[in-house]
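Annex B, item 7. Sequence and structure tokens for protein A, then protein B.
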Amino acid sequence: MVGVTDTDSKQTDPYLWLEEVTGDDALAWVRKHNDPTVADLGGERFEQMRADALEVLDTDARIPYVRRRGAHLYNFWRDATNPKGLWRRTTLESYLTEKPAWDVIIDVDELARADGQNWVWAGADVIEPDHSLALISLSRGGSDAAVVREFDMRTREFVTGGFELSEAKSQVSWEDADTLLVGTDFGEGSLTESGYPRLVKRWRRGQPLAEAETVFSGSESDVVVAGSRDRTDGFERTLVSRALDFFNEQVYELRDGELIRIDTPTDASISIHRQWLLIELRTDWSYRFQNYPAGSLLAADYEEFLDGRGEVQVVFTPDAHTCLHHYAWTRDRLVVVTLADVASRVQVYTPGTWTAEPVADLPQNTNTTIAAADPLGDEIFLDSSGFDTPSRLLHGTAGGPLSEIKQAPSFFDSADLEVSQYFATSDDGTRVPYFVVGHRHRQGPGPTLLGGYGGFEVARTPGYDGVLGRLWLARGGTYVLANIRGGGEYGPTWHTQAMREGRHLVAEDFASVARDLAARGITTVEQLGAQGGSNGGLLMGIMLTKYPELFGALVCSVPLLDMKRFHLLLAGASWVAEYGDPDNPDDWAFISEYSPYQNISADRRYPPVLITTSTRDDRVHPGHARKMTAALEAAGHPVRYYENIEGGHAGASDNPQIAFRSALIYEFLHRTLNGN
């Protein structure tokens, strides 16, 4: 074995120095690996694919997705002229035209030039309901940590002497025009072990940040503590919360200086809208002599529930095939998207009776999501797309008629493509669904790319991807999406059974899909590649070290790989609930069975692998990718490596970087799986 050989990784890890993110030696190692990868994978086809990808990413024909704030629809937009982006707005009347008239509020490219900083847009918190002020978050190079600066929407200028926070993973909310609820890096002891705020303070205009009043505090072992203010007229509330771990949270209302616990299960997700409390269960719950299964969505009168006298009503109950995917409020309706064997359905519920009406006239054979909903009105935007069907944006009212108002262009010829759904059988007999986007007239197996994630209850659903289409499908490749356990495709139990000691199920499911593809003659081992990022990058590391005989190539992006030290690096402590605690011998017993960095063998044949990451990723430490590459090389395995100096956890911070990285990946796959 190569890598960590006993529990004291600091003493035994020969590549620990690669965890020095910006250390001179570490960055020299990065450049030494980047240069040959780019030189080797470069060439005419690479340049053509990079240009194709950039055309998809930059085209003005994309749908500009919006959210309503008062009388205006807001959008953030990147293109070839504005690679860092424009924050802009328009009216509905103009938006419905073919070429809306956009009012640019902030030009991030211009701001970056003026400030001499590589700003990446990280969002805006605009005060409700008058939209006069905003808190603008800007990240250097795409990291999660950002600076926050107050912006006057009336003058279009940053407020001199206004609210401003230094770079941190801050949590901020407007309490009123002169007061913020702030969680940030206040100094020693103010952050959790995961690197997020541990304190919520009330910061008044003109007051030094150091003098802000603490209104709520959590433990260093919490993941994050946050505060927010609901400014809905007649339903004003201040809420504070502490995430005990990634999946458990305590939420309180701060009322007249008193903390009132909203006594729902800590692992349930809650939503408070006007007088309603929604409770989404992750595990079974017994309440007032009634049993409610995991995956249910329940509703209660908020004030009555706080008083302990409220009954809960069932909004949605899952079954073996159907689960809750996501929902959004308008003022008087609840819009709900469910998945039935990973196919979406949309319904509108009326609060109180909780009767549901299906949304009519949705495009057939597409996946539909809620693009935006106005919590102060009745407006909704729905987006429908499929693997071979570009997005269509529908607009209307919740419970009323919808009309198609925008359609994205086709970026590749899909006439020869067909989408099928199959089920593989995992090692324990579980049926695992997967989609195949293949070529209708292909005779025999062909080069195939398999994607998967399998973690944190994230559901992977069908959707249009112009870059994948142009760089892979249009060039003869087949694409497969595996809906493995660990995700949320069948609700919370699809995830919870694959947590901690059940983690092996994720890999077994993915391997079963790989075998099924070969058994059906869709591909062969030599022609099968797989790709995953972040938690999906961990999955690729496990495929490499545990199932190398199933693949012809692997792409492993911004990955977790050293599971002995993941909890010590950046935000890693927040994921202990998902994976287990490596410092607990009982947990390490099952983590050590799959941790890729600890399971590299010099005696097995591994398929070629491309590992990519970002220096500026302050969520998943780039040391994972660096050390894995070094250990693989030491064991004599073929590995290519590329690290973007910018990009954050997304691996790229603007469209040119995304296009470059995409071309690099698909060039590697074409060469390896197509043999050319």
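Protein B:
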Amino acid sequence: MQSFSRQSFGNKLKIAFLSVIVLSILMTGGLSYTISAVTLEQNALKLTRDTVARSAQIVDEKLNKLMLIMMTFMISQPFYDMLRDVVASEDSRYYKHLNDLDNVFSQARIAEPLIHSIYVSTPIGEFYPSSMNRNRGIAFADTDLYARIEREKKNMWVGGHEDQLFSGGERVISLILQPIFDTPVSGVYIVVNIREAGFRQLVQGNSGDDAFSFLLNADGETVYPVQQPLVRKAVEDGNLPRMMRLEEGSQSFELSGETYLLNYARLNIADWTMTTIRSRADVLRDLVVVKWLIAGVAVAALLVTLLVSGAFARYLLKPLQGLMKVMKRVEQNDLTARFASGSGDELGQVGLRLNRMLEQIVVLIDEVTDAQTHKRTAEIKALSAQMDPHFLYNTLNTIYWKLKLKQIEPSQQMVLSLSRLFQLGLNNGREITTLARELEHVRQYLELQSSCYEGLFTYTIEVREPELTACSMPRILLQPLVENSILHGFRDLKEGGRISIEIAEAGESRWAIVVRDNGNGMDEAQVRALVAAAGAAPGDSPASGLESGKGYAVSNLMRRLQLYYGDEADLQIDSAPERGTEIRIALPRKGEKWDEHA
């Protein structure tokens, strides 16, 4: 260990990495198990698909056997003799045919136990097994079976329904056939009823206890009613036909928060699809043991890796942890923190250089703090000086002409307002004022502008919460905003301008100033240019896209807010051509002692 401690930090890392690599090679066996598990999973899914395909084949063979039995029935001599009388419209031997066909009916039912009954409808009468009780309450022509064969005009299978031809109302699945004869025969139909319960057992037979097998017709409906809630919900969802686009395949879908596998195969005899729904977890349950075995191997390897690598990490990170402690103290503004280490490796050298850097930072911070203090104070005063009233010339000119026109009292009022405006603006040399004094300042300004531009605009000032008037704020914030409205917003107006100033709370620790006008407004490009102008240094030219001087006072105001509040203040501009402009300033509440720039 002493020899290791004298190594360079690079060599220490190399040794640690070599150890981890050796462990990684040993864990390759775990990856082999993982590949085996994936292969087993694929084989399990393929086995499920093969099972559905075999089930579909069994049902197909059963239906094909039923078709062959009925073909044999239709080429039998008693049936042939009966058809010959039907063609000749001869009904005198009806009872003889009934007796002869009864034996053929019995042979067909013996050949296939699933057959419940056979019914033959002809123009000369009905034929059916003598052991069956015909339901005389309904004629074949009035049944849904007759309507469907007349509509389709072809041999067809009909899904599960209640038998209407014979007494008892047993549920059956029907095969409707038209006879094969030397000459065309009309009005002759053969109905073979198959027991639905037996057919259901045939469909479900090879699916297993954890799978639900059923048949879907071409319309996406079950061939016979299915009792399982899972199947009913999947069918009612209506997505099964969309998922079963291929002739044979497998799809996965989510239902009630669980993943299920949908396996299906088309039948050849009927236009039906053999469908099986099975939980994916049930299909893959044989993989649980393999997966737990793989997980156990992985956990064991992980524990060994953690033990070995942990010992190396603790040794290697000890000097780094010392550096982190020093850096955390520096993060907490403790610039007296210093790194101490007896090691002469690369980390020890880094610690020594960190100590030197901290000493230089302390010196630089003192210098930068002094420089920034002077710079910030100079910038604020420069911006405040730029915010002095630009309308002095117009105001004095207006007073002159009013005096010349002998309007003594209005002239005196304007002089008093101008004096009060300067008094409030100067604020005894302090940069911080109260909202009440700021509102009085902007009111005097608006009165003077009303005298200079008679009839051009009206204004309102609303303070929703009177206690806000005691809030502290930088001086001359509102005057640049209303100045912008008058000089630029109302530039094309002769009269009808409106300016509203609204003061309201904007949360527990913030309050807002909203200045609205109904002037010309600005398009999106002008608003962007106005915001971009705020990022320029004091004294720069206005941003591209603005007329000379337009928005200059607003951009200065935005820079003042950044200097006073940083990210705590928020200024939003909402404007559109011919819709006017709304400027909203959200400021944090500051205590009465907040006077750092006074």
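Comment on protein B: The two ends are 65 Å apart (CA to CA).
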